[in-house]
């Protein structure tokens, strides 16, 4: 049964972010740390956790960055498309997101239930995959499954913050080892730096783009249609097509996770 996350879910998520038990360090450079769980036997279904210290970006600003779908199109160059489908409560909605995988892998997409919780000076956003009758799997994407994905943003000093990103995704396929390695050593650190850079640029961008519009803070601004929770079902991984990409070799093609990934206005 689909349910909206409660305080216990958010507390559990925070504990996973802050705990070091059972996590193996994969990367620690330039202020970015990456850990994983469940790498044994080349499993694709590992948990990844990332952490970055963001100077000169407040927790509140980074929270806005991660909510603002219009701004996401400016900085998330791996994103193909994202949009909100409908709202469930003042702090929960259903949305769609598709992303560009490293070539020659097929691109993935998700339909997720997302919920958020401001806690004083800290913020959390978490999601998991659901089925919506009007948004079935598409032929041009592999429908992947988020078992648990989210952000914890903690205030750090007068105008800084620490960002944690934790994710466990079933990509619906057997991935080659080079992909698993590339994610922890290259894609994940670059993604964290990109969010940080987006935070540094957000205030200037927002001043020119509907500065007062923040429906994640002011729910009365939300004009999305209401989604009935009964319409949704848990998206179980076994219900989706599994594809075998384990034999694919890495192509020497450009992957759009470059550090200077900001398109011009």
Automatic annotation (TrEMBL):
InterPro entries: STARD10_START, START-like_dom_sf, START_lipid-bd_dom, START_lipid_transfer. Residues 249-265 have a biased composition (Basic and acidic residues). GO terms for cellular component: cytosol; membrane; motile cilium. SMART domains: START. Residues 241-265 are annotated as: Disordered. GO terms for molecular function: lipid binding. SUPFAM superfamilies: Bet v1-like. Keywords: Acetylation, Cell projection, Cilium, Cytoplasm, Flagellum, Lipid transport, Lipid-binding, Membrane, Phosphoprotein, Transport. It is found in: Cell projection, Cilium, Flagellum; Cytoplasm; Membrane. Pfam families: START. The keyword Membrane applies. Residues 19-204 form the START domain. It comes from the Eukaryota. GO terms for biological process: lipid transport. PANTHER family: PHOSPHATIDYLCHOLINE TRANSFER PROTEIN (PTHR19308), START DOMAIN-CONTAINING PROTEIN (PTHR19308:SF2). This is START domain-containing protein 10. It comes from Pleurodeles waltl (Iberian ribbed newt).
